[in-house]
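Example 3.2
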Amino acid sequence: MPAPNFSGTARINGVDLWYATYGADLHDSQSAGYSPVVFLHGGFANSDYFANQVNYLKDGPHTLITIDSRAQGRSSDNVSRSLSYDAMTEDVVALMDLLQVGRFSTVGWSDGSCISFDLAMNYSSRIDRIFAFGGTYSYLNINATVMETKTFQTYMDWVEEDFKRLSPSVGTFEDLEKRMLEMWYNEPVWNAKSFQKVPSRFDDPDAPIDKGD
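Structure, written as tokens:
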């Protein structure tokens, strides 16, 4: 990752949530009308997986904010609460409140896409743009056999090493894996009606634009 303007943790909803900012000064960019771009990583990963994207965009007019989702990367866990997309979404909103950010855009990968969808459905007034890839609206659409592939197993080896190197949690990677899989086997549970909560630009010129695959 390039050198951040800031990196550290904030006490958010019972966890120490790690985040970093890059590129343009947050106050200056917002004053100039540029919403910050928040990067939301996939399950088990951390912000470092967006290194190429952050490095490419850091010289633009937008402030870039990376967040390690609760229990992952450099963020701590709160085992008294189940992992859920709602919980991680609430963390993002609370951090934006702390940073005095009104509207923001997101780049979401996999679980980060699901968090982006959750934001668009439940906090649409806060969202400017969404770029989402690798997400889903229902856990029933997940290809469970992907976890048996060599590619996914290689990924799991990487993230386990990352967990051992970065995590402040007292639990083990196996503990995290159990909690993550419990979420994946039960969430998300959205449908077409859920996404009708996201206003369109025909109804609201300030509604979020969602670009995803």
